[in-house]
Predict the structure.
Amino acid sequence: MNSETTISTAILKYKEELPRKVTLVAVSKTKPNEAIMEAYNAGQRVFGENKIQDMVAKWEVLPKDIEWHMIGHVQRNKVKYMAPFVSLIHGVDSLKLLKEIDKQANKNNRIINCLLQVHIAQESTKFGFDHSEIRALMESDELSGLSNIVIQGLMGMATFTHDQEQVRAEFESLNNLFTALKDTPETPNFKPHILSMGMSGDYQLAIDCGSNMVRIGSSIFGARNYS
């Protein structure tokens, strides 16, 4: 999937196929600027990166109307590099990280939007809060004092398995938590409306289970260029 026609066709396919309420995040990690511009010229404006240094390098030279989403695990000492421009941070998995994002957002006179990552998979390698930790965080006095972040919802990654019933159960579990959170009163830094779950292999199931943001990479750009 290296030609402009193929990338453009993939973008147009997803824009036609996805329900209007579902945001497509084109996962451009490891991909060159030329590939991103092919998707951009097909109308895509939301791109996801998993390494802050790569995202910064792309932000510096690519069109400024691109919304950059940080979808990978975030190290606190690197938040300052993306704080001037990042649109949404998907993988917030600790209160310490939220505090650092708030601190760096304040330095840049910005409000940074975040999703809380919930650990729903059976794989121990995935990051995230568990359900009880999410509820404790929502009731935390420390959270209420963070004025330069807004928690816009939840993100989760299902187990990498062919067992579709297991994946469905994990997605439904996250949707149930999301629904419960939406029933709690909004605050200045807590306005839940995004449920980010689903990737190239399971996005349709994720949408069936309530996702309104999907992260798709290889089906648009082809195999990763890992070196």
User: Anything to note?
Assistant: The domain at 4-221 is CATH 3.20.20.10 (TIM Barrel). The beta strands are 23-27, 46-49, 67-70, 88-92, 112-117, 149-155, 190-196, 213-216.
